[in-house]
Amino acid sequence: MQLDRRAFLASLAGTAAALVVPKSVAAASKPERFASARMDDRGVYSAVLFNLEQGDLRAVELPARGHDVALRPGGSEWVAFARRPGRFGVAVPTDNRQPIWFESKPDRHFFGHGVFSTDGRLLYTTENDYDHGRGVVGVRDATNGYKQIGELAGHGVGPHDVALLSDGRTLVIANGGILTHPDSHREELNLNTMQPSLVYADLENGDLLEQHKLGPELHQLSIRHLAVAQNDTVVFGCQYHGPDEDTPPLIGFHRRGEQPVVMQTPRATQDALRNYIGSVTADAAGSIVAASAPRGGLITYWDVAARRFLGTCALGDGCGLAPTHHSASFLLTSGEGWLATGEADGTMTRQSSNYHWDNHAILVG
Amino acid sequence: MTVLRPLRLVLAFALVWVAPAAQAEADHGAIAEAALTNVIRPGYAAFAGSAAKLDGKVQTLCDQPSPEALDAAKQAFAETVKSWSRVEIFRFGPVNRNRRYDRLFYWPDPKGIGLRQIQKALADKDQSVTLADTLAKKSVALQGLPALEYLLYGDGADALVHGDPEIAFRCSFAASVATNIDRVAQTVVEDWREGADFTKTFLTPGPEDTLYHSPKEVTLELFKAFTSGIELVRDQKLGKPLGTSPETARPRLAAFWRSDLTFPNMAGNLEGVRTLFAKGGFADVVAAESPGVENSVLFDLDRAIDVLGTVDQPIAEVVKDEELRAKLEALRVALKSARDTASSMIARGAGLSFGFNALDGD
Q: Which of A329, B129, B148, B245 is the most exposed place for a label (fewest CB within 10 A)?
């Protein structure tokens, strides 16, 4: 039997009670550890491993703003990436070992996302080959100081989020389609001609397996974030770069061999999302997906099998999402400092913290 | 009692002439002091006062059960919920220590965990819940206002007017919950007193403090209480129970539906938000940004408080009443606009970084 986290918390009023909890139960119900990047009010950036009971477990100061975090399978390390157009990455061990820093090649920068191979040996990162205006996927050896050992084609412009399908050898890449160059900082250089895509590529040789583009009327709908849910259903979240008065669908579903389907929410919600999804995450069971809309201050929930919108919950500047150990339950983080536990029925409990939590969060275990 | 120093707020429009690019900032120390003296301390003092009365009334009910004694206990419970509602929006400070917030108000509880635990304690006649000392070490869901609400209003509570031994256990449980609420409330008041550790950090934060490093961070904390207080009412308290239609409504997600205090609770939350805005310094920040806008924010809040105050049906009926639903939906829209207007002006006027993720573009 798996104990519900809140049920367990509810059974704990203090350490005195904690002492009488049988060891096995205590171990199974330890508060989840999460990792995320953040900024404090002095403008200091860090990446941190934390739980909702004790707060920080291990924080590492970052030289600049971070973005996503990736967990190395086996749970020995988690890696924080620089936000684009940054060049640093850092692997932080969950034990006391020193963090391992690494960088992109001189003519590349990170986009802020990455994923490990199933065996935890190789790290794949989305990067910008900006002088040639193409996206690439860097390959690094996690067993050898994260030294770069190769590079795969990204099959598009502006690869952003990346994940691995359950076969362990298919990468799925969200190609945002937006051309940027570090010399013009974060300026978007091709909004009139942008063509985002959802790409599946072979992990070993980088071969293109499948590529999907949305219809011409949606060519300014940048596919930016994704999550792999049950049955390898890829749920992707978009940001619209066309006229504000358009309110195109922002969440899409896709399985290999099918056509991607983008889904509207009810009118009032669709307007409130402000054409911007910041993060997408599947729950522990892979059957519910949460997608955040920080501009709208809303978290949306989706039923993966039914491909159905479930509802929302309001969280100002809410963006980071992570699964918890329990189905239909998520960690929600916000740039305004909130750490919350949200259920797919829209209920939420929140606590205050003194950090601006960045776009993404992960469950470490 | 502290003598109030007048708020010293730099007027943005006065500076524009000389330094258009300079960010005029509010006096953060003055905001913290105004919020503490005018809002936080009086709010918790009122809550602790009503909790002490409640403790006495529930004890009287157990000692001399009667319909009048049960009514008096319920009356005191309603007063305590109302005073709690005004400070419920503060999720920081002493109430955030040692799980005090959850011990006072374990909510929402969509899976009914608290209810199951209460029913189990009643069925098992678990003696440890009848003494405040031992109750304090039990589940937080057994210790606070929702637990006491069930004991006073839930199934079987009517029997509290008799003194038979079967119901005496329930009454002792209720009395220890009331004592626990009273004790936690007094501790929170104590920890906010002048010279207390938390008060010092709150009023004069320094780089070496762990909680707040600078006065601006305290302003941010208060700002969060303001914006999240409105979000709490429009989304969690109203939106979730209402659902999108009478068919999808979930009235039992509402807070305090058993005692019919759902609407007074929401009105109290907004009174807390209003007081923080009007007396905690934010209205002045908004006035300095754009004179007159502070009044429109207050107007929206007052109207919402009025509307919520006039609802006299149980939430289960309200969610089926199309006319009322429309009224409450309109109120949710007005609350959102008040929140958005005020928050962007406060953020600008107080120099708070805002839209960390929203404006990020990633």
A: B245
Question: Residues A258, A259, A260, A263: what is their CA dihedral angle, to the nearest 10 degrees?
Answer: -110
Class of domain A35-363: mainly beta
Contact status, residue A326 vs residue A2, Cβ threshold 8 Å: yes
Q: How far apart are CA B162 and CA B168, in angstroms?
A: 9
Phi then psi for residue B61, to 5 deg, are -60, -40
Mutate to test the interface with B, among A110, A225, A352, A353 (most CBs of B within 10 A): A352
Number of alpha carbons in the 13 Å side-chain half-sphere of residue A210: 13
Q: How far is CA B342 from CA A134, B87, B296, in A?
A: 43, 20, 9
For residue A346, list chain B residues with Cβ-Cβ distance below 8 A: 235, 239-240
CB–CB of A347 and B244 under 8 A? Answer: no
Residue from B58, B297, B354 nearest B178 by CA: B58
Give the number of other CB atoms < 10 A from CB of residue A151. Answer: 18
Query: What's the alpha-carbon Rg for chain A, to the nearest Å?
Result: 20
pLDDT digits (tens, 9 = 90+) for A239-286: 999 998 899 999 999 999 999 999 999 998 999 999 999 999 999 999
pTM score of the predicted model:
0.84
Q: B138, A316: Cβ pair inside 8 Å?
A: no
Q: Residues B21-48: pLDDT tens digits?
A: 334 578 999 999 999 999 999 999 999 9
Exposed e or buried b for every residue in B174-198, given b needs 16+ CB within 10 A?
A: bbbbbbbbbbbbbbbbebbeeeeeb
A227 burial level (CB within 10 Å; 0-12, 13-18, 19+): buried
- The full set of domain ranges for chain A reads 1-30, 35-363
Distance of alpha carbon A11 from alpha carbon B113, whole angstroms? 10
Q: Does A209 touch chain B (CB under 8 A)?
A: no
For the domain bounded by B43-202, which CATH number is listed? Answer: 1.20.1420.20
Contact A297 B358 (CB under 8 A): yes
ipTM greater than 0.90:
no
Instruction: Tell me the sheet residues that pair with A115.
Output: A124
Joined together, the tokens standing for residue A104 give 């992109």
**Are B146 and B106 contacting, i.e. CB atoms less than 8 angstroms apart?**
yes
Total length of chain A: 365
Given an 8 Å threshold on Cβ–Cβ distance, is A41 in contact with B213? yes
Lowest mean pLDDT of A2-16, A189-203, B139-153, B323-337, name the range: A2-16
CA A230, distance to chain mean position in Å, is 17
- Structure tokens of A137? 């996927």
Closest residue on chain B to A237 (Cα): B362
When pLDDT is averaged across residues B268-294 and rounded to a whole number, the result is 96
